[in-house]
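P.,

For your records, the input lines for the assembly:
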Amino acid sequence: MSTTTLRRYVSQLGHNEQVSQVFLASDKQLRPNRNGNLYLQLQLSDRSGAIATRLWNASENDYKAFENGDYVLVDGATQLFQGNMQMIANSIRRARQDEVHEADFIILQSDEIDRMARRLAEILRSIRTPELRNLVECFMMDAGFMAKFAACPAGMKNHHAYKGGLLEHVVGLMELVLVVAPRYPQLDQDKLLVGAFLHDASKTDELTYDRDIAYTDEGQLLGHMVMAMTLIDEKVREAERLSGEQFSKALVTEIKHMVISHHGEYEYGSAKLPMTLEAVALHHLDNLDAKLASFTQLMADCPNVESNWTQYHANLGRKLYKGARIEERGTSEH
Amino acid sequence: MSTTTLRRYVSQLGHNEQVSQVFLASDKQLRPNRNGNLYLQLQLSDRSGAIATRLWNASENDYKAFENGDYVLVDGATQLFQGNMQMIANSIRRARQDEVHEADFIILQSDEIDRMARRLAEILRSIRTPELRNLVECFMMDAGFMAKFAACPAGMKNHHAYKGGLLEHVVGLMELVLVVAPRYPQLDQDKLLVGAFLHDASKTDELTYDRDIAYTDEGQLLGHMVMAMTLIDEKVREAERLSGEQFSKALVTEIKHMVISHHGEYEYGSAKLPMTLEAVALHHLDNLDAKLASFTQLMADCPNVESNWTQYHANLGRKLYKGARIEERGTSEH
Amino acid sequence: MSTTTLRRYVSQLGHNEQVSQVFLASDKQLRPNRNGNLYLQLQLSDRSGAIATRLWNASENDYKAFENGDYVLVDGATQLFQGNMQMIANSIRRARQDEVHEADFIILQSDEIDRMARRLAEILRSIRTPELRNLVECFMMDAGFMAKFAACPAGMKNHHAYKGGLLEHVVGLMELVLVVAPRYPQLDQDKLLVGAFLHDASKTDELTYDRDIAYTDEGQLLGHMVMAMTLIDEKVREAERLSGEQFSKALVTEIKHMVISHHGEYEYGSAKLPMTLEAVALHHLDNLDAKLASFTQLMADCPNVESNWTQYHANLGRKLYKGARIEERGTSEH
Amino acid sequence: MSTTTLRRYVSQLGHNEQVSQVFLASDKQLRPNRNGNLYLQLQLSDRSGAIATRLWNASENDYKAFENGDYVLVDGATQLFQGNMQMIANSIRRARQDEVHEADFIILQSDEIDRMARRLAEILRSIRTPELRNLVECFMMDAGFMAKFAACPAGMKNHHAYKGGLLEHVVGLMELVLVVAPRYPQLDQDKLLVGAFLHDASKTDELTYDRDIAYTDEGQLLGHMVMAMTLIDEKVREAERLSGEQFSKALVTEIKHMVISHHGEYEYGSAKLPMTLEAVALHHLDNLDAKLASFTQLMADCPNVESNWTQYHANLGRKLYKGARIEERGTSEH
Amino acid sequence: MSTTTLRRYVSQLGHNEQVSQVFLASDKQLRPNRNGNLYLQLQLSDRSGAIATRLWNASENDYKAFENGDYVLVDGATQLFQGNMQMIANSIRRARQDEVHEADFIILQSDEIDRMARRLAEILRSIRTPELRNLVECFMMDAGFMAKFAACPAGMKNHHAYKGGLLEHVVGLMELVLVVAPRYPQLDQDKLLVGAFLHDASKTDELTYDRDIAYTDEGQLLGHMVMAMTLIDEKVREAERLSGEQFSKALVTEIKHMVISHHGEYEYGSAKLPMTLEAVALHHLDNLDAKLASFTQLMADCPNVESNWTQYHANLGRKLYKGARIEERGTSEH
Amino acid sequence: MSTTTLRRYVSQLGHNEQVSQVFLASDKQLRPNRNGNLYLQLQLSDRSGAIATRLWNASENDYKAFENGDYVLVDGATQLFQGNMQMIANSIRRARQDEVHEADFIILQSDEIDRMARRLAEILRSIRTPELRNLVECFMMDAGFMAKFAACPAGMKNHHAYKGGLLEHVVGLMELVLVVAPRYPQLDQDKLLVGAFLHDASKTDELTYDRDIAYTDEGQLLGHMVMAMTLIDEKVREAERLSGEQFSKALVTEIKHMVISHHGEYEYGSAKLPMTLEAVALHHLDNLDAKLASFTQLMADCPNVESNWTQYHANLGRKLYKGARIEERGTSEH
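Structure tokens returned:
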């Protein structure tokens, strides 16, 4: 992309814009139209969103010119079709490496992820309760786990649903713990930090996120809360091996309880309701961080730019009020 | 108890009966009445139920004459008080061993439990899928687990809430599987048998049942469904050690899924809804066996002997219709 | 269909297959496209499912060449369009009788239905309670009712939603009763058999099923559970006329109670919750049979052949896990 | 009762009142107190309510001096005990007929019931649709049914729960129909009148109300809405017999639909939701009349005379605001 | 429109009708089809409904030939497309004033609105309680408020969702009060009239309705029930200023309570449940009027003219039964 | 109280303790027992709780010796009765002023309240948005309001249900805002502070709390959320008067929206769901503070001192796990 032209992010595209820039390609299909002519259909995306795209009168060669997952340079124009923006491409070719600006395609840059990973380690090392400290060390020593933890999204949708999203959510939550727990002396901050660290930890195995985000079979059949039981058991055994001492059974139970109860209500898949002060605090802080992230993103992604309101979100049972203040993620920091 | 007089079971006692027989004592308290005179209050029970009892004008000596958990010989008379039957005792003394007929105080006799334990082993050995067979062998080889499994009740209340109740429920359920599964060729009978065997297995640690039935802390904070994850993981590791082969991860996941989903609905603490055919079948068969046991017991325990209806059960949202047909447990087999 | 070519069932068709075989036609419409040219749109089906079909550049003659409900021979090719398979036909003509293999178009063959009807009669004759035996005889003597009973589907969708489905479901349920009831001596097997026989009996009038399956006005306004009251009253009057004796009013009430409570919960239209042991048992057994049939069919009908999971079913609140084991109905038995 | 002394109704009694007047006796029991002395416990009631009563140091003779259901003359004094008013009787004897003023013991006087029965007949005769007119004639010709209809309460509790209450509720509802239906030309007033007449008609068999109000077995197992199907079928057959013509099946279905859907929601036992205009209107008008009657009675019965609020009613989820305006039933008309 | 040809209302249009008459235009868009040719897409409506319309091969001139909100004369033909009726226009031009028959485009004619406004004033003047009379005078003296009250719809959808709908609903409700209240002497008719008048009064500011009906920001964030608190406070202050006397605080509270509780259940946004007799009566009468209006309109608007049933309405959880009796609004009065 | 004897707080009293110290008296009643002898019944309380008390063989003089609300010196002994602790007093007399240690009877000391009031003012003055600053100034200038704000409890029960509890909850919540808001740049901290300040502000008029805590009529009929609309309107008018400028209507609406939506769900009486980021944040932070306060208090008040668990709390649907760590409020700070 030329240094003189600013990129138009997908979320910025309006009706009838001429576009000539790099996108990430996926979901390509060669299909016949009703007159039997072939066209190429695909998704083009950058970090701000995705747009359905068609190349009319396409050939087998057009189809083979690139792979899903490739960066492609696209010439085309946008068009509002049945309420959604789509792109009609005139040409699509694989982009040269020097045409690609990687930062346009990831929401969290690698240095941001590194910074958050260091912050996570720093906070975990602030834990003073010996057994809990040993336990988190066992997690930190597991390089494979930590790598997945840093790469994993926090979910399929709703909030932090992108690579690094889990780390971002967890660090954010632990920062909250650090400022909130001191205000409630009845809370055990160390337990709460461990709960925040581990509450979603098995999302690393509940989801696949090499390319797309999806559930694993195990993730779908058991869920990350139940899967975390096995993960915690493993690390507790390791902590016992390293320390040569029995880990307190009551403490393991409290940690597991924070994890399996953190959704707060049976209807959200909590096997138990929160029954300890730390479990209650974790549930509410997690909810606060997740809802703020989710609502902010829904406002930012909202295509009704001229309205004070987002569309109606059936799962929330409401529209959200953007006021005149919210700016789109993805672009405001560029 | 004299061989000529038939015992009157607690559930058979009516207003104004003279009683002179052995009971199990519990919950004794020495208390002052409103005039400052002391009286002894306690529970007397046998296998058919319990009755509140008072000994007026009691002394410290009366209080110390026996311990909770002792068999005591009681002379007294029954009285309807505020809708409940109570007993006014004239004398209470520790019973001699020859006065006690143990079978009057347990719901499941030890030979019944033995017979069911043998039947459980027999059914488990009918499993033909090698991995599942190895897994259940690991459970059967664990004598401590099997002993707890045979002693454990199936719950605090509702159904099979007495020693041996878990075994009775599980064997009953597996017998159902043996007759029902052949009618549905799409079901994997071996998986379903393992599911039936393990679905409540961690009740052995969720509950304490040496004397009274109660929840353990772990049981209350995690619940038997979540606790079973650790139990299954342990036995899978053992099965791998014995066989020298990796246990199929997908198979472990399916077994765990049956366990954590067997309550069928989120509101009953299922972390997941049943998503496999075996999980669905297990949920419905478990429900059938549990509900029939529970309703039968509620009808049998119902004190309104002259009515066609039990009292209103708020948790069920209904009364039950006994018709003219139901007879009381505890006595019909004597 | 030629003896040498195996039929490709609708559920087996993939993208870009050439097809030349017989289908059942329905929903034909002659419509203009956006350029004003006419095309013919219709549904083609066999026993494994249905596929939307278009014949471009069609004429009035093409439209009149066959009727809805006719068997037609179609030449064409399949195409994936917006995630669904559709067929582009090159020609459609009415099929000759010798080209049609009737068994390809019905889920339950007439000999299967006959066999089930005989089995139903056999089980009903096993009833020993005189009044109940008389009552079921009155139903069996009503040839019109029995014919409808054998032809009726068990519902509009969900489970057994095809001709003969009611009979298949009811016989399956009664077979369950025969193996399950003996395990619970507190159950009256005869009552339970009558409950299983009659619980959905008024579906014969709740639905129409000569061609399509639909609700009658009465079915929609009253429902089969309420409609069954009238049906049972009629047969009880007849039983009284034949026997010359008054039918036990309490027994009629228990039978009606099983029928109106068998959905188990108010939210599923049960006017009462199950209050007798037989009503509880019927509810759970019915649920077991219906859910297994429904889940099995959803797995079999699932078009995502390459996935371990069915699509998300909103009414069930979940996806189903097919594993690697399930094969499609409609073809596995051919 | 002397002509110079005004009766103190049960609902008017305060703490520490001397009482010497006639009550209706029920629930008598001779019981020992904690010192072994006998006392007589019973309920005394009049049309305004009931009061628990004790006669200390009672003998077998006191117990036998009257029967439950007798009118008794009581000397005693009232006392507030644990928040409820009770009476300590000094003497209780059977009342002479000339001491009893029957009107003090029934909520609806017989001339009121007669007047309402005549009004019911008058309204029913205003129906002009021939088939509906014939149908209601068949009900009116059934003297046994009409007698039960005039005697039956409208329920066990909630609203109009006294003899004649059903008639009072139904006539009140039909009067509402007469003034409301003309405002909605889309409503068929005749259908709506029949719906109002029959919606609770099988309460005549759902309840027993000779002495106490209770459910019959059939009432509990089927409910009045389902039971009405049989009642309507009977009268339709009779109407056909009398007129020699087939009754419109669609019309019967609409009438039945109004009956089985009039509770409006599945959770209140409606087998179907209202789907016709008349069914919707009937549901809302019935609700209006029932709720106003129920709230008015709760306000009138409220023992907190000095508060603006009734107690909290858990089934309503609220207290009711009486303001300063409501006067107690039972006494205001005396 | 010619005096000799009767208008075909939108709701009357069937497949393949030739149309040449005046409509109201909205939502016009000029869009390219898949071949790049432009077409004009718009909505055409009259008082009976709206129809999607396309003009193929349109030009920029066609697009500019009229504005949204203009009356246009359209020549075209109707077509059933994917289950919905659409129109293919051959020509569209702005209509001359003499071609427009205004009454075809509004549901409530201005003389109807005037008549209802006079009736509203008449009923309000029948209020005899001095404070309430003063209060309603303050509303009536506010010409701006009364003008909005007469123009406002009663909602976005569901019932009375057209200009003047609020007035129609409120007057209808007050007429109900006038006939129903006298039947319940425990009701204060004046309070109930004021409640009926004000219950939806802040819809005048919750909605905008100059052109389309939409929510204001304030309406969406607070809702008309909460907004009414401010409105009532204003008028109470004014009433106090005019009368020179303090308005009864308890009375204001009762009026506000009727308003904020009139939806009857928390789940419908009632901040409180109805706790006074008038609040209960208002809730049920409002519900009756609203549901009858809504169901009647759903039946009238139902496009399945040949069926006894409307389509399934998910928000109602049911289809509605039209029977053979309902005729379409919009046309029956022409 | 003597300096040498430590007070035994009500929450510390066990079975059979001799007590001679000062309590606050309330609810005194002179009542006859079953033998006609009079006794005095009353409540004795201090800041840690209340205990039911009886003085046997009391006279009219005993009754008149003190008033409800007096401090009394009591000699007596404790006794466990039906699971609850009660006190049998030997003598009760009005306490001399020098015997009373006021701090034993209030949960929040006046200097604590003063300190919190100063902190509230300090935080409010940190608000920088001019309009919001003006608005909160108008509240702070209203000495009557601020006095009530400092005295008011936060509710009838659940959390902070004591004098000064509202202030404690609000300041605690605003402190949370000060540490949490900076972590979410998308939040407007000033709006959120105002929301926290005002969300429960009308509890000052919803409740009475001079002696006991109770609802006002207005509080019960409207609730503090709705009542706050009037309060905010008043202060906005005042702010406009003072500043001579129109207050932003959009801003008032956002503030009101935070207030009426802060319960988060319709079922908790929220008239609207939170639709702005600040409303969402307020809801979750309020919930966090309230739940931690409530759970901590339930654990502290729990009379099962020897158990790890509190009793079952039906409104929470669970027991709470105290672990071995929680100490009783009331005493830990003495």
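Two observations worth noting. The first strand of chain B starts at residue 18 and ends at 32. Chain B touches chain A through 27 residues (CB under 8 Å).

Regards
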